[in-house]
Amino acid sequence: MTEKQMEQHRERLQEKYARLRELGMEQDDIDELDSIDDDWWSGKKEVELMDGLIRLSLSRDDDTEDPLSYDDAIFLVSYTRNYGSNHGYTDREDLFEEAKQKGWMLFPVYAYIHSGITFSVDSSLDADWYGGSNPYECKWDSGIYGYLVVDNAQLGWKTENISEHVENIIDEYDTWAQGECFVIGDSVCESKADGTIGEPDMDYCGGYIGVEWAKEELIDRVLWHLSEHPQKFVKTLSLFEEN
């Protein structure tokens, strides 16, 4: 998340936590939910509500698609060996020429490759297509990765918002490249006559890029369940990890 998005994320969380308190959730349980993004890579996280009748899970999703793979108005052309695609532009001069003809905007994307890969973008509207704004200190392991191509004739972004949109897109792409992708499981278990609880039949929804977004979705589902089942008032909340 960008700094602005993170600030908005925190504000939304505080609103959600206030609603949870209204529904009767104890502050200790809210604090446990708030900690769910700590060490997100350590394993599967599970939440149990109402003595196990409601079960939610948050786990890594290795099948999340490249967020830039399905939009012809925004795509990333890579000239880095073993990473990404050049989309048929074998020479960047060919890309530059077509961009000029079609009125596309190009933004240089930089990568730092060392035991992994991370990305940054020069989002200025007058960005030097040939580079010169590498933000990484180690020049041996970094440089221009490629170009984010933006067809604003299709998108219709306001000029004053273009740089922010570009930064958000590459931030999401970087998060995806780090493997910070999640799937959420949701199940209402059957309460049997003998007092036991049946096994959960999880309904899974994946494709959440960024632990912050996944955390918000998980908490929204907690809020929904508590609102839908007020008669079953929360008795316990359990949060545990399964490696």
Runs in which pLDDT lies below 50 for 5 or more consecutive residues are 233-243
Straight-line distance between termini: 26 Å
- Class from helix and strand fractions: alpha+beta
Q: Mean pLDDT, as a whole number?
A: 83
Order of helices and strands: HHEEEHEEEHHEEHE
Quick structural gist:
The chain is built from 6 helices and 9 strands.
What does this entry look like structurally?
- The relative contact order is 0.23.
- The chain is elongated, with a radius of gyration of 22 Å.
- It is of the alpha+beta class.
- The chain contains six helices and nine strands.
- The chain has two domains: 126 residues, no CATH class; 104 residues, no CATH class.
- The strands form two sheets. Strands 8-7-2-1-9 form a five-stranded antiparallel β-sheet. It has a four-stranded antiparallel β-sheet with strand order 3-6-4-5.
- The longest helix is centred in the first third of the chain and has 20 residues.
- The C terminus is likely disordered.
- The two termini are 26 Å apart.
Give the topology, please.
Layout lengths: L2 H20 L4 H8 L9 E6 L4 E7 L13 E5 L13 H11 L2 E9 L3 E5 L20 E9 L1 H4 L6 H16 L3 E8 L14 E7 L1 H18 L8 E6 L1
Antiparallel strand pairs: 1-2, 1-9, 2-7, 3-6, 4-5, 4-6, 7-8
Structural key phrases:
243 residues; 2 domains; 9 strands; alpha+beta; disordered C terminus; four-stranded antiparallel sheet
